[in-house]
Amino acid sequence: MCRRLTILLVMLLPLGLGACATSPLGRSQLALFDDSQLQQQGAEAYQQYAGSHERATGATADYASCVANAIIRELPQGDGPEQWQVGVFKDDSPNAFALPGGYVVINSGMLKVAENQDQLATVVGHEMAHVLADHANERTSTQTLTQSGLGVIQAVAGSGGEQLATLLGAGAQYGILLPYSRKQESEADVLGLRLMARAGFNPEASLQLWQNMSQASGSNEPPAWASTHPSNGQRINALESHMSEAQQTAARAREASLRPDCQRP
Ligand SMILES: [Zn+2]
């Protein structure tokens, strides 16, 4: 994507706004926004969600938090947000997501589709991987440039900075809630598998989880968060090709006494 947008980037560079980044899996990414801008948007989106949903309590909240915290404790050092906040909410839709700034949201409905702690860790690992890989910045940047490309050119050619900042600000506001691209989904699958394995969860469980997700969305509308996800078959093939690496990671974690034991209510 960076290469295709080179012309626009060249125009943005004098303003210090054009930037290419590299994802944890080595993919070249477009990143126009400051981390702080996205973190602020993430915080606002989280507050909004928390303000309009009832919090889950007791065993449900303990269980989901136990899984998320087990992964958070073993995240690679210096990667992503310094602190994470985990919110578990009473909502039957099988939804979970993570936001820039370090917010993890898990709906109680997700616990029906994720049948055990390892399956739930698959979901949480996947969502946190989107944040660690800076996918929101990439998605927002791409969207802003492709949708308002003309506006950006005009802004740069004309009065410059202030106008451009307004344009990018508008992009960031809707950008963090955009669906992820298929490439990003595949990247989050692989990276997420690594994250849950590092915490000592069983990576094999990811295969069943995505089967369950597929079934859960079979008869009804697909869950919003899964709507752009790769097909079940593609996803399972990709996971299988990374399985032996993930199993080795999980074995090392267990040797280091990482054996999560989150009690499903
Ligand atoms: Zn995803």
UniProtKB/TrEMBL annotation:
Q: Could you tell me the superkingdom of the organism this chain comes from?
A: Bacteria
Q: Name the Gene Ontology biological process terms.
A: proteolysis involved in protein catabolic process
GO MF annotation, one = metalloendopeptidase activity
| One Pfam family named in its UniProt record | Peptidase_M48
The residue range of the signal peptide is: 1-21
Q: InterPro entries, alphabetically?
A: Mito/Outer_Membr_Metalloprot, Peptidase_M48
Q: Which CDD domains match?
A: M48C_Oma1_like (cd07331)
Mark out the compositionally biased spans (Basic and acidic residues).
252-265
Record's keyword annotation contains S-adenosyl-L-methionine: no
User: How is the cofactor bound, as the UniProt entry phrases it?
Assistant: Binds 1 zinc ion per subunit.
Cofactor(s) the record lists: Zn(2+)
**UniProtKB keywords:** Hydrolase, Metal-binding, Metalloprotease, Protease, Signal, Zinc
GO CC, any one term: membrane
The UniProt family comment states: Belongs to the peptidase M48 family.
Q: What is this protein called?
A: Peptidase M48-like protein
Question: What organism, scientifically named, is this protein from?
Answer: Kushneria sinocarnis
Lineage of producing organism: Bacteria, Pseudomonadati, Pseudomonadota, Gammaproteobacteria, Oceanospirillales
